[in-house]
Amino acid sequence: MIEEKISLRRVIGEYGGKLPGPNLVLLGGVHGNEPAAILALNHVLETLRRQQPPAFRGKLIALRGNLPAISAATRYIDEDLNRIWIPELMKPLEASPEYGTDRTVEQGERRELFRILSPLLEDYHNPLYLVDLHTTSAESPPFVIIADTIRNRRFARDFPVPIILGLEEQLEGTILHYLGDLGFRAVAFEAGQHHDPASVNNHIAAIWIALAGAGCLQPAELPGYEQQLHILRRAAEGLPPVFETRFRYAIAEGEHFRMKPGYRNFQPISRGEVLASNHQGEIRNTSPGNIFMPLYQTKGDDGYFRIRKVAYFWLIVSEWLRRFHLERMLPFLPGIRLNPEIPNELIVNRRVARWLVLEIFHLLGYRKKRIENGKLIVTKRRYDLHGPEADAGRD
Q1: How far apart are alpha carbons 391 and 331 in whole angstroms?
Q2: Which of 113, 158, 176, 319 has its CA 20 to 30 A from that of 132?
Q3: DSSP letters along 19-33, please?
Q4: What value does the mean pLDDT of the chain take?
């Protein structure tokens, strides 16, 4: 069992060098029952302060997420802090970070985090990185989750663990996707099960790797960099490098959902397999794949996900298609038009453009946003190949 007497300060610590460089935000405890990240962040900060690496570039900022939930050792108090960063709901907060009405504990926590993060968004001279550190209720090897942009892929490839794509089509309001849309290169790193001591070591390894990937330190300047890579490689041994999310079981309000015991993240599942039960009876899997993040805790409305592996070849194809900006051809095809009110959004008449399946939009950097009046609405993230520093005329 992992235990920590936590001093409830928002900022765990900062570390900066004399050389200019990236701003790397490391966020732990967005869910209050996930203590491993905070232990790992304290360990890395103590090591940096002790060793004082002279070539450190930029700044590391380590933050706690949900202070009341951390104090109570529960996932959240009123609502999930990692589901309320919805762009439309963020507009009042963006306009007035200091003042406003917060109706839940988590809305107040969101405001405090935004106050710290918003000044970084104004600094386009230096790249912005976010690593959102988590653990799972089920037994699990480590993995990373990203919104599928080329910038995020490059950062995620530094971690020798599986990359999960497409979760943003199933979940709304995560801090990862909100900050990614504002210009952060952002990954969520899942280290393992909540109270497995190995999760702390996996988080420590991931933090050192993130420091190298962001450019704060070169691999040769890091303590035991190859050992950190080895820790994660061994923990994720035998798993394919990339998966995509295909299905989410959403738990309805009042549903007595109970996951069948014993499932491990990435475990293969077959069509018709009984995965869970509720007040109506058995819940069976509808398609073969791999189970992902089965729910073994009392709070949360994601029962489980189903994922499937993706051939790495398609990521290479996708990057080349985006480099040549072939997505610019889409509005000229039958059944597809630009949304005149929202940049980077396409409206697809699926009766006309039957041949244009969602996977093709994925290759070109679009994601499914919703179905509206029988039409498919897809959107492309603003920062795919380049970040806000390119918009400002800086590389």
Answers
A1: 23
A2: 319
A3: EEEEEEEEEE-SSTT
A4: 92
368: alpha, beta or left, given left = phi > 0 and alpha = psi -120 to 50? beta
- Looking at residue 90, its amino acid is M
CA distances (Å), origin 175, targets 35, 82, 133, 169, 235: 18, 6, 11, 14, 26
Query: Where are the domains positioned within the chain?
Result: 11-235, 242-309, 313-388
The yes-or-no answer to whether 11-235 and 242-309 have a common fold is: no
Q: Per residue in 294-330, pLDDT tens? A: 999 888 899 999 999 999 999 999 999 999 999 999 9
Under DSSP, the state recorded for 34 is: -
59: left (phi over 0), alpha (psi -120 to 50) or beta: beta
The H-assigned helical ranges of 197-335 are 197-214, 225-235, 312-323
What does the pLDDT look like over 182-215, one tens digit per residue?
989 999 999 999 999 999 999 999 999 999 999 9
3 state DSSP class of 40:
helix
Class of 242-309 in CATH: mainly beta
CA 264, CA 266: separation in Å to the nearest integer?
6
CATH number for region 11-235: 3.40.630.10
